[in-house]
Amino acid sequence: MLATESDRSSGSLSLENADKILVNIVENEIGQSEDQIEDKVTTSRDADVTLGFLLDNNVLVPAVSYEEERRLARKVLWTIVPLCALIDFVLYADKATASYTSIFGMWKDTNLDQNKYSNSTTLFYVGFIIGQVNLLFLQKFPVGRVVAALSFFWSLIIYLHTVTTSYQGIYALRFFLGFVEAIAVPALNVTMGQFLTAEEKSWTAPLFYTTCLGNEIVVGFIAFGILHAKPAFAIWKLFMIVIATISLLVTILVLFLYPNNPTDARFLNLKEKIWVIRRVQRTTGSSIEQKVIKKQQIIEALKDPVSWLFCAFFFCNQLSNNLVYQEKLLFKEIGISTLGSTLVSVAYGSFSVTCAVIASSIIRKKKNSTAYSVVFWTLFPLVGSIAMVTLPWDRTYALLAMICICAPKGIAWILMFSWTSTSTSGHTKKITRNALIMFWYGVANIIAPQLWRANDGPRYYPAWIVQIVFAFFLAPISALAIRYILARRNEERKSSLDGGTPLGLIKSTDIESASTIKGNIALLDLTDLENDHFIYPL
């Protein structure tokens, strides 16, 4: 008897007569015999959420051919990556609104100054840290619905900026914006992990991040156009309205198109949904999604030294993140006009996007090069930061060039964030590691604005020196340490691999049925340390 819809959603599956459904499909694809089954066992309640869908449909779908898989990969890449990137674009535009409005007159209207502006950015990240509790919603509820809700609320908060008249109001709004946006990028990361192989996720990460890096181009042109408008109200409010409206339109798109997982993706037919699930589980060795919070996976995430090395990277790296918010003020202090600042921002963004495309091409051609790429792209901001400390202040064009050279620093960030997901398995462990990373990400971003104090201007030596030591020296070293540990684990595991995809056992939680099925071990939602066949991408 196959599972009912209510059985599947509750995690209580009736698996009677289901043995051949999954096993035969797996054997047809990978050529394994039943005596090669691993001793790994789990219950249907703790298995991948796609299990019920597979039980109903897997037997109906043949193995994918080489040409069919190539077409499927292109279809998924050209749908999921642009959709997630678009959401990330409006997310980043929302974050950067205060940076642009700082040169549009908002400071005067709300009584902000340099220190209060830095405080508002700090409060954004206080909200960001507290907002990590929202990861519980990501664990328990459909990803698509969570992203839609977040997108709506951050649009609403940007609209509310237009009615504030004091810096205290700005403080409150930036805090709540951080709270709402706290888990947006982890949610997008989860979705891309549901549809892409580890290799695809690695080389598309820089392309995904071009919407942040290239945000300067699009938003810069929007700002340029607004500077020529003659509204009846403050120009910075018009800018907020435009950005909030774009966000709201994207929210509507999310409601109609954003999938919870491959089983309900509207852009895929039945065969393609099954093929996506199979290829992701086969190539990553990881489950698609799991809605049961597993205590043992939380404990493992906390004990795994790799988790803390990722935390160290994000803490050190993000001490430089306020440069994104500070650059407009630096342009102004160097002597660039408001109009000139928007044009320089476009050049800054263009250079960032170019570097991201190059980074994607390199990673696609050279496998297992994530850590080395992180080191390479960190060299640019390292050189730029050293120059900002040493160049004479009257070298205007050289100083502008050095700020722009810092632009690729975001590439290292997104490569590492993608690596956090592909280098671990077990849905709860992934969510826990995300929470740890984003916590330290938030802590660093609370500190970062306070490095840029008004009395240190216009050179801001303390800020640049902290960035050089932590963000551009210690952070890449932690990436290399992660690679060393994961490479050693891979060496220990490769000797025991036979080249086939291992099978695991799933026992029914239905009291009336004591049946067991066999399937790809990825369906068991094991962690990377529980699954000896999990090979870490480097």
From TrEMBL:
Pfam families linked: MFS_1
Chief localisation class: membrane
Molecular function GO labels: cysteine transmembrane transporter activity
PANTHER family linked to this entry: HIGH AFFINITY CYSTEINE TRANSPORTER, PERMEASE-RELATED
Regions crossing the membrane: 76-93, 143-163, 175-195, 207-227, 234-258, 334-359, 371-391, 397-419, 431-452, 464-486
Keywords from the UniProt entry: Membrane, Transmembrane, Transmembrane helix, Transport
Protein name as annotated: KLTH0B00572p
InterPro entries the UniProt entry points to: MFS (IPR011701), MFS_trans_sf (IPR036259)
Secretion signal, residue range per the UniProt entry: none
SUPFAM superfamilies attached to this UniProt entry: MFS general substrate transporter
Keyword Cell membrane included in the entry's annotation: no
Bilayer topology term: Multi-pass membrane protein
Subcellular location field: Membrane
GO CC annotation: membrane
Lineage: Eukaryota, Fungi, Dikarya, Ascomycota, Saccharomycotina
